[in-house]
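Hi all, long-time lurker, first post. I run a small reading group and we've been trying to get comfortable going from sequence to structure in the token notation. Rather than ask abstract questions, I figured I'd post a concrete chain and ask someone more experienced to write out its structure so we can walk through it together at our next meeting. Sequence below, copied exactly:
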Amino acid sequence: MSSLKINAGNPISVLSRLLDRLTIDRIPQVKNGKRVPDSLPRGSYKFIPNNLVAVFNQFELIHTFMGYRPTDLKFIDVGCGIGNIMLIAQAYFYTVHGIELEPTYIKLAREILSIKKNTNKTAIFKQDILNFKDYRKYDIIYYYCPFEDPVQQKILELKIEDKTKVGAIILPFLKQSSAIIKDSRFERFGNIGYRKVST
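-- Answer (accepted) --
Happy to help. Here is the structure in token form:
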């Protein structure tokens, strides 16, 4: 399958730029004279938008090659920020969850996703991603390098790789640890993904 071309006329490219504009511009930078968010753990990145065209391409690849319908898959965004990736994921997967610790981001994500409270289908968990216990419940685990500190980021990556169930796909944008490349439990999936094939 050829990936989508990134150009001004491509609907996915246009949509991704529009989504970035609509979501990122709403992130408050200063509140009461202080920069926000200020409650993220030390070593965490503040929200950084990903290349949404690449995300669309990976989601399309999952559907094309895995043959899943949206009702078959559970997706989680690890460090979901303002929920822009979750918004795209809702078009592809039946269950879409996110994990985020920063209240400013959670509030904005709930507005963007139009969710007042968590449901089985759509939820944002206010929790430290290193302490999250349920990674093995998900079929698709996405993250975009939530930690600035490479040590913490590698700890997170290894934890996710260990806790992921067989058959699940990890979509790790800006991966820091290369251990998965030699890990026989995983096979490459698309340009950036890995699929767990054994325990």
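A couple of things your group might point at:
Residues 76 and 97 are 5 Å apart (CA to CA).
The helical segments are 11-24, 52-66, 84-89, 103-113, 150-163, 179-182.
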